Amino acid sequence: MQIHERLMNVFYQALLETIRKARFTIDGVERDFDIFRTERMGNILRVMFYLDDYSGPVTHATLLDKDDVILISGTTNFHKENDGFMYVFDIPIIPEGGVAP
């Protein structure tokens, strides 16, 4: 069976309606950021967050839903300077059998 493009659109829309913010640990302090931008690139949903105002080591990143439930989380290892920084969560949706037009 093949998944049709319409169902893929439903999946992406449901994700966009569910995702609300990201939480980053910057210099040992958890800080929440609102979504800066989203885009769909083929079978990948990109959720972007612009980190500004803070500096220091960024050691953890978490994507949260509207109820503050963790959707994606993991360890990070980079140092954020005083200028802005764009962090991107790439969420792939890969159907078995491909997508029919």
Automatic annotation (TrEMBL):
Q: Which domain of life is it from?
A: Bacteria
Q: What is this protein called?
A: Uncharacterized protein
